[in-house]
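Incident review: delayed structure delivery

Summary: a single-chain prediction request sat in the queue longer than the usual turnaround. Root cause was a stuck worker, restarted by the on-call engineer. No data loss occurred. The affected request and its eventual output are reproduced below so the record is complete for anyone auditing the incident later.

Affected input:
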Amino acid sequence: MHAPIFAPSLLAGNHAHLSEAIERIERAGPDWVHIDIMDGHFVPNLSFGPETVRALRKTSDLFFDVHLMLDNPQKYVQNFAEAGADLISIHVEPDYAVTDTLKRIRRLGCKSGIAFNPSTPVSAVEPFLDQVDLALAMTVQPGFGGQAFKTDVLNKVRELVGLRKASGLSFRIEADGGVDRQTIPLCRSAGVDTFVAGTSFFQAAQPRDLIALATG
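Output delivered after worker restart:
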């Protein structure tokens, strides 16, 4: 129901030259870039802050797909919205006011997404599906790039497809983690329409071929 989108993950780019990573994405042709925000608590790693997003926004018109992997995302959605995010996804696992935070994201002028880890059941995100533009299924345990793809998450993607159809909703379904030449066809057949790829994109000799596999 959606045209497929390929969103390279900035996390796999050269952190000393992020503007060059953005330029590489733009040359390859995608309209989106996926930006992972990690706090060292919800996931055991640190990545970018709102000032990084703000600086990149000044140089790029790409759609900024910002993924907050934070214990308290409600405290930071305004910072990232004001920095230039186009879509902000928040995780269902931490204990905070998810519905209020999703509403706030939209009031701030951004699209909203709900994300969940590989071990989290779809039932945890189901109550929020009518409030979001995107459901993000983590196909690795979040926190580090280069992990192996968890194929069992594809059953959860199929659940999301069924729920979307049954409820007449139109949210996109995004897969993030281990998305590469081997797993893209599996994702497509399960119903993924938004593909986040980091390592496989930045290490590809011909990234356009990888993009075409997802979007062609």
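Verification: The chain has a mean pLDDT of 95.
Action items: add queue-age alerting; document worker restart procedure.
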